[in-house]
Design goal:
Elements lengths: L13 E6 L2 H12 L5 E3 L4 E5 L8 E6 L10 E5 L4 H10 L3 E2 L5 E3 L2 E7 L5 E7 L1
Parallel strand pairs: 1-4, 5-9
Antiparallel strand pairs: 2-3, 3-4, 6-8, 7-8, 8-9
Helix pairs in contact: 1-2
């Protein structure tokens, strides 16, 4: 067995979110989560990296691909930049759909589910 200098610290190390139109998706996620996503050519696809607060840890990217229909794919939970309610309002104002019902409360915080304009299932998560 060889000594690998890269040893993942978590079971999930990267997430890729397919979107039907990268430019529109970047505008949506920037508006909702106050990101500053920029597209870049990472071959074979243009992508937009989802930032981490400290520049380390689990992150991901958007790429132009084929999203699952109407929230039927995996759910990607993203941390809200302010309050759950304010982010949910921006999510809908930008063209997403927040699924109705009370937020789900768990020991780490609370969240609601939404469907982005591409049909992806997104969890809006507010930590404690």
């Amino acid at each position: 067995m060889t000594n690998n200098p890269f040893k993942p610290q978590h079971a999930l190390i990267w997430a890729e979110l397919p979107v039907s139109n990268l430019e529109k998706a970047v505008a949506f996620y920037n508006a909702v989560f106050h990101y500053d996503l920029q597209t870049m050519d990472m071959g074979p696809n243009m992508i937009a990296m989802i930032p981490t607060a400290d520049g380390e840890g689990v992150a991901g990217n958007l790429y132009e691909g084929k999203p699952a229909k109407d929230g039927s794919g995996a759910t990607l939970h993203l941390v809200v930049p302010d309050t759950l309610e304010a982010t949910a309002e921006r999510f809908e104002a930008a063209g997403g759909e927040v699924l109705k019902g009370d937020p789900v409360v768990i020991p780490a915080g609370r969240f609601v589910y939404g469907i982005d304009p591409c049909g992806n299932s997104i969890g809006l998560f507010e930590g404690n």
